Amino acid sequence: MVEQLGLGLKKKILEHQIYRYLSRLALTRNEDDFYSEFDTVLKGLYKFAGPNKPALENVMKAFQERHPLTKFARLLLQERLSKVARERLAKNFFCDWVTEAKKREKLEEEGFKTPWFFVVSPTNACNLNCYGCYAHEYEKGQGLSYAALDRIVREARELGIRFLTISGGEPFHYRDKETGKDLWDLAKKHNDMYFQIYTNGTLLDEKTIERLAKIGNVAPAISMEGFKKETDERRGKGVWEKIDKARQDLHQAGVMQGFSVTVTRQNADVVSSDKFVDDLIAKNISFGWYFIYIPIGKKPAVELMPTPEQRGRLRQKIWEWRSKKPIFMGDFWNDGPWVGGCIAGGRKYFHINSRGDVEPCVFVHFAVDNIFKLWEEGKGLREAILSPFFLSIRKKQLEKNDNWLTPCAIIDKPDILREAVKECGAYPTHKGAETIIEGNIARFLDDYAKHLDNLTRPEFEKMVAGEYDSSIVKLSKVIENNRRKNREELEIETRTAKEKTTSREERKR
């Protein structure tokens, strides 16, 4: 009890200090004043950083070298975020992450490593009909009830997770039939969580944006395929104008906004151009994610997949932009060296679809667990994360993948997914999901994976050797540390899962 009171007091002091610092930064009038004040702020935060001091030291070093992310921070605080949005971002991401460290450490002592985040798709209903969208393959219907969503979020909080991604379908199309509640109600209730919502952007009208601005803990990431031509070709005529208007309204309301792009063979050159990213920055977009087209969903077509050469050029451009442009970007395939390979299977994230199936990844439509069945058995997210299927994928990644520029168990190392599905008896979560692991698509992926490995392996070896190290961060050390952590965490969690299974079997006897 005393410890909880002490933690609560520490949290309040930290929040007060953070809000004071943010206000001072937001009120600076020019770049020189901002950087001078920022230096003072970083020194003040260092006292509260605790075990996160090494990370903050990297931030301080980046600041001293005027890294573009310091300009990014200035744009956020001075020009893009409202007071509500910046304080909610700081509290939920920084304050709560620091003060929740003990909870995560306790779970680690119990043999459980909390993922960074996970994705929930409350509905597959959508007002658009984009070709290649995986959501089309799931059965239609309401999806998850509000009560189920609420329980999922509560369980996430108990595990120390403070960031959730909502996908679909179209999330802003979701409304619970029984209560009439939507995602705004969910975010308002759980205002100590931060939600990123992947959206097609067409339902972000002024009223919806006004509601988002009031709560401050939701960041829409609007899907696009490039510029107007590419976006309207895939998403429908007039979509570009609608999302362009939504972006202007989001900026005026001070709401954090991002983008997401599915990279195909057709748009790869466009979305890896300087013109494209400069346009994003000019439209006050603060973050974004690149996804590789995966041949699943509505009329899967391997000819839409970007070539290995296009993936290589995309990596070069994104890594270059990070050192030059004031925008945060992630590439879930090319960033394998930075995050320890594939993050799926509960290592860093997983997916719950609209039927409650717990999938290793939003693109891996196989499962061994359903959240509703787990609840009936007195279990939950923790048991799903330690499922034999998830652990099998992670184990095979350790055994079979020594090139983290080819991290994906679906298209880069396809034998990993095939073997794990067979070994664990994973069921397809919709009709046709098995086409990714058999037949013509599987044969294509075998050839694709070989070509990609031959192309990228020499580059990854350079990264391991330190040729990509910089004065701010040494990628070779990041890779070395992640290799060790991946192995240690898997060993501990495999042992924990085995002990729990043995204990349950003994109780049954």
From TrEMBL:
Keyword Acyltransferase: no
Chain segments carrying region Disordered: 485-509
Superkingdom in the source lineage: Bacteria
GO MF, any single term: iron-sulfur cluster binding
Domain Radical SAM core positions: 112-325
Signal peptide limits: none
CDD domains: Radical_SAM (cd01335), SPASM_rSAM (cd21128)
A Pfam family assignment: Radical_SAM
PANTHER family: RADICAL SAM SUPERFAMILY PROTEIN
Name of the molecule in the record: Radical SAM protein
Organism annotation: Aerophobetes bacterium
